[in-house]
Specification:
The complex is a heterodimer of chains A (365) and B (493). Chain A has 365 residues and is mainly α. The longest helix of chain A is centred in the first third of the chain and has 101 residues. The radius of gyration of chain A is 79 Å and the shape is elongated. The N and C termini of chain A lie far apart (218 Å). The model of chain A has no long low-confidence stretch (mean pLDDT 82). Chain B is 74% helix and 0% strand. Chain B has 33 helices and no strands. With 493 residues, chain B is mostly helical. Chain B is elongated and about 135 Å long. The chains are: A mainly alpha (365), B mainly alpha (493). Chains A and B meet through helix 3 of A and helix 21 and helix 23 of B.
Chain lengths: 365, 493
């Protein structure tokens, strides 16, 4: 507008002055203001940058915080898993240690060093030892008694033999023996033994061929009757006159007397010898015959054998009432024309009725 | 001169020869005559009579020669040098049984003195002749031949091998089965002499089935036969485990325990020897014998017997206890320890004492329980006394030292549940310590003078460490003197 233009032209001078003044002032203050402006700007830029940086820091912190939280939580989860695993493993280890302890204790106690088995074994051993000791004691006792018994028996035997040999020392009624002195209260044990034992029987001296031809031979009764010392030969015969006549010498007679019976064969065989022999033969045949059928060669007997029915099929095995339930013949037609039994003797008159009651036999005389 | 007078001269000569030889044979039975006979040169006179025409004179000459050679080895050497042996060997195959008996008697009399003479007998080819006479019918001839073979085989393994190579063993086993007791005795003794030298010879004897026949004769009533049978079985079983097992498989246990009560002393000794030879091989065999009650029987045997015959019993207990601690406990349970203590105190002989000390060592060395069981028998002081005794021999000292020290150490160790090595010991068992002191053991331990630095000194130190110092000083020797010296030095105020 035109008014503003006029206004402006009025103020040009002032404006120019003010312009120069302001420029001067500005020029004077330029350095200071510049520096101040720089300072302010720098400060402001600094603030800006700082704000930006702090913003960035904050954001970075947030990001880092979130990231770290994330990784830490993952790590922590891993740790928890691992710790849980370790805890489980420890638990298992501990439990397995307990199991192994128990098992090893059991195993060792049962197999390798079983205290109770060992104790039982020692007790059993003590019992066995006691038993063995007892058995051995018994055995040695038994042996000792056996030996003593044998010794005593032998002694007894010897004493008996002595008594037998010294039997002549037995005391008689008239003359008391050595062991039965009248000054003793009772007879000695040897005396009793002498009384008990039998004297030695007279022994048969082996016959000497050269010494036989005396009157007495070693086995003749006169020789035996005379008590003689052992080994004594028979005394020579008393020479007496030979009796007249056809008599043989006493030795020969004695020999003949001594000679045993020698029966002839005819005398030896018994009267029933023939029957005995036949019986023997028959029983021998009966014993040795295993086959009933005789051996007939070239006879075709085996081909002409008739068939023998089995016993089971050839008769009925039912009980037959005849003989138990009734005694009369049922099939009378079989009896037609048959003669009754004939006895050898007549019945005696006492049994008249008796015979006639049951049969026709009594009628025959 | 008529014919009769000529013949009479010959008859007279024959009679005088016969009389001479018979008298020499009779004189040779008495030892005091033999010197005179030797000086009179009887050997050279007898030699031609051996080739005499009359058989009776030959036999009697052989008998006289045998009796002379039996007496001492000079005469035996003279018999060998006189070339009599080949003649005898030749006639051993030819002549009748009386001559064979007499010839075998001469061979045996010569062979018994020394291995060289036995070798001379073997070199004459006597072995084949003797083996042939083992096949004779007459038991006397067999007995004489078996006796000669036994004496030859007795000396060493080489001669035994020669006897075996001649094929004697099967015939000897046949002889054992004969009914005559004397023949059985001699055959058993010959087998025992053959088998004793080496395992191979024992194996040869076993291969002919001798064990079964020997086992059958165990319950025979004859005492001398039983001696030889048990001796044979123990010689067989001593060599190796297999042979011992074979002997045991013949089912001799428990029948041999009955023979431990035989009235004859040497039968019992041989039975114990057999049991010792069996138990020393393996724990299983010992266990078998323990289970059969053998330990109790042997302990009773030790109680009944006196002297040298106890030795095999003591060694058997030692061997049984050495194998394992179960067996040692079995010995203790069977009341072996008091019996061994009695043996230790009763027997004067050194080697028996040494064996007993060794046995104690074997019993007590396993665990503290065993050591305690041994110490309750008051054995330790006696063992220590034996060790200290300057008269006792090296062997005895070594064995007692081993036994005693082992006992002490194991004994002082703690409760039965733990067993730690001696030098790291801290004894917890006060009762054990007290017992050791009251039994006089500590006193005796102080009296031991051992070389410083030796193992013995270390052990003594470890024992002393278990007791307070005053107690140790109290028990050390010369304590009363030190006390008196202090009394003398003391000046009352």
């Amino acid at each position: 507008s035109m008014a503003s233009l006029v206004r402006l032209q009025n103020e040009i001078e002032r404006i120019k002055e003010e312009y120069f003044t302001r420029n001067r002032i500005a020029e004077e203050n330029r350095q200071r203001e510049n520096e101040a402006a720089i300072l302010i700007q720098s400060w402001f830029r600094g603030c800006q940058v700082r704000a930006y940086l702090s913003h960035l820091h904050r954001k970075a912190t947030i990001i880092q915080k979130i990231w770290r939280g994330f990784t830490a939580r993952a790590h922590f989860r891993q740790m928890v898993k691992a710790a849980y695993f370790i805890m489980k493993m420890n638990f298992y280890h501990e439990m397995s240690v307990r199991i192994q302890q128990r098992w090893r204790g059991y195993c060792v106690r049962k197999y390798s060093h079983n205290y109770y088995a060992r104790k039982r074994y020692m007790e059993g051993l003590a019992r066995k030892n006691k038993q063995i000791r007892r058995d051995l004691e018994e055995f040695s006792e038994f042996q000792r008694r056996e030996r003593e018994r044998m010794a005593m028996e032998r002694e007894e035997q010897e004493k008996n033999v002595q008594a037998q040999r010294m039997h002549f020392l037995l005391s008689t009624k008239q003359c008391p023996g050595v062991f039965n002195s009248p000054f003793r209260p009772g007879p000695d044990e040897m005396e009793l033994r002498l009384r008990r034992t039998k004297p030695l029987p007279p022994r048969n001296i082996p016959r000497d061929r050269a010494s036989l031809l005396g009157n007495t031979s070693p086995s003749s009764p006169s020789f035996l009757g005379v008590p003689r010392a052992f080994g004594a030969k028979p005394l020579p015969p008393i020479p007496s006159k030979k009796p007249q006549g056809p008599f043989r010498g006493p030795a020969e007679v004695w020999a003949q007397r001594q000679r045993g019976l020698e029966p002839s064969l005819r005398v030896q065989t018994s009267i029933s010898d023939l029957e005995q022999a036949q019986d023997q033969l028959r029983s021998g045949e009966w014993r040795n015959h295993t086959m009933e059928t005789m051996f007939q060669p070239f006879s075709k007997a085996h081909q002409n054998r008739s068939y023998e029915r089995m016993l089971h099929t050839s008769s009925s095995f039912q009980p037959v009432p005849y003989g138990t339930k009734h005694f009369r013949e049922e099939h009378q037609e079989n009896l037609q024309g048959k003669q009754p039994f004939k006895t050898v003797f007549t019945t005696c008159h006492v049994f008249d009725k008796f015979g006639r009651l049951y049969s026709n036999a009594g009628k025959i005389v | 001169m008529s014919q009769r007078q000529v013949l009479q001269v010959f008859e007279q000569y024959q009679k005088s020869r016969a009389q001479f030889v018979q008298t020499i044979a009779e004189l040779a039975t008495r030892p005091q005559n033999i010197e005179t006979l030797q000086n009179a040169g009887v050997m050279s006179l007898l030699r031609p009579l051996l080739l005499d025409v009359v058989p009776t004179i030959q036999q009697t000459t052989a008998l006289a020669l045998g009796r002379l050679a039996n007496y001492n080895d000079d005469l035996a050497v003279a018999v060998v040098k006189g070339d009599i042996l080949p003649q005898l060997v030749y006639s051993l195959t030819e002549q009748n049984r009386f001559y064979k008996k007499a010839a075998a008697f001469v061979l045996r009399a010569v062979a018994k003195h020394s291995p060289a003479l036995a070798q001379a007998v073997v070199d004459c080819g006597a072995l084949d002749a003797l083996v042939i006479s083992l096949e004779e019918f007459d038991p006397g001839v067999k007995e004489a031949a078996a006796w000669a073979l036994g004496y030859i085989a007795r000396h060493n393994a080489h001669l035994s091998q020669a006897v075996v190579d001649a094929g004697a063993v099967p015939l000897l086993v046949l002889c054992i089965q004969e009914p005559e007791v004397a023949l059985k005795r001699i055959a058993a003794s010959a087998l025992s002499d053959i088998a004793k030298h080496s395992p191979e010879l024992a194996q040869t004897v076993v291969d002919t089935g001798a064990i079964a026949h020997l086992a059958q004769m165990i319950l025979n009533p004859d005492a001398k036969l039983k001696r030889q049978v048990f001796s044979a079985l123990s010689q067989i079983s001593k060599h190796s485990v297999d042979l011992a097992e074979m002997v045991v498989e013949a089912e001799i246990f428990p029948a041999v325990l009955a023979c431990l009560r035989d009235p004859d002393e040497y039968v019992r000794k041989n039975v114990t020897t057999l049991m010792r030879e069996i138990t020393k091989h393996t724990p299983e065999l010992s266990l078998m014998i323990v289970n059969a009650g053998g330990v109790a029987a042997v302990i009773d045997y030790l109680g009944d017997s006196r002297g040298n015959v106890r030795l095999p019993g003591i060694m058997m207990l030692g061997y049984v206890a050495a194998h394992s601690e179960n067996l040692a406990m079995a010995v203790i349970v069977s009341k072996g320890v008091p019996q061994l203590a009695i043996c230790l105190s009763e027997e004067p002989e050194e080697h028996i004492k040494a064996a007993t000390a060794w046995a104690f060592g074997q019993i007590g060395r396993h665990t503290p329980e065993h050591a305690r069981a041994v110490s309750t028998a008051n054995v330790l002081p006696k063992l220590l006394a034996l060790y200290m005794d300057t008269d006792s021999s090296e062997d005895l000292q070594v064995k007692t030292a081993q036994g005693f020290i082992i006992q002490c150490i194991v004994f002082l160790v703690s409760s039965p549940l733990t067993f730690s090595p001696p030098l790291q010991v801290l004894p917890h068992d006060s009762k054990a310590r007290r017992l050791f002191v009251t039994s006089g053991g500590l006193k005796k331990v102080q009296e031991i003078k051992a070389d410083p630095g030796s193992a013995l000194q270390e052990y003594i130190n470890s024992i002393n460490n278990c007791y307070p110092e005053e107690i140790v000083r109290y028990y050390s020797p010369g304590y009363s003197e030190t006390l008196l010296a202090r009394v003398e030095k003391y000046q009352p105020v």
